[in-house]
Model the fold of this input.
Amino acid sequence: MREAFVEHAAGLLERPMKVRFDVVGDIAIIGSSTREAETSVAESILRNSPRLKVVLAKSGPVQGTFRLRKFRLIAGENRTTTVHRENGCIFHVDLATTHFSPRLVHERRLVSESVASGESVLNMFGGAGTFSVEIAKKSPSSIVYNVDINPEAIRMALKNALINRFRGRVIAVLADAKIAAIEVFPKRSNRIILPLPEKSREYMHIAILTLKRQGIIQYYDFVDARKGESPVRRGLERIAPLIKCEGVSFCSGRIVKSVAPRRYLISLELQKRDQVWSNTD
Ligand SMILES: C[S@@+](CC[C@H](N)C(=O)[O-])C[C@H]1O[C@@H](n2cnc3c(N)ncnc32)[C@H](O)[C@@H]1O
Done:
């Protein structure tokens, strides 16, 4: 996230105002807090950052199965498509049709660095292929199956796999994650990524069932934590009933970002133990 000072915004502001905005490729995205002065804010952003060509404002929450947000054009070219560079990879993005968060750049780097060479990875909610392409880049000879239920996300993931030269190593699969996990990839994955924090818990059981022994689950969740409480511990408590009988242990956890006062996106790394009793083995 970037910050800029906007001065005198066409007489609307009495003193300079600090504005925060996200950058995706050459698109700046501002929040709704600057509504009265948004045109001046947008023009100021374009004037001060010549590389940026579009300013959009968020005009609603992330919603629906495809996890999309509505945007309004405030200044610059009328488009939601761009090319974004992150962690040495290039991504075609269309903010109107496919979920993308530039704020996960650090998390994607950490996850891609943790994957060992040769792993078979199932990304159950892969979107435009961001985690998947970065994993393929960092971990030689790994194969990543990038599943998503949104056809536009899968079209974008295919494109991103090709432009980053990972044809055959990042496989884009248009499917419901549950069906893909059970019918296409049973017991084939060394690692399963669940980057759909609103619903990851619902998919935990299937992820455990379809994971190889000693395999890793990279799990995401939104948790509320009071002052002094550990968000990671809260996240672990939420899934404890799901994992305790399944031979899964906690390896590590971290706060990815704060999403509201005392509400956090957390990431947990869990491992399926070697000896697991299961009547499906
Ligand atoms: C929060 S986005 C994550 C996108 C991507 N991993 C990223 O970080 O850029 C969640 C994705 O899950 C997809 N999705 C939602 N329900 C799904 C399901 N049942 N099966 C497969 N994909 C699903 C959405 O279309 C969306 O692209």
User: Anything to note?
Assistant: The mean pLDDT is 91.
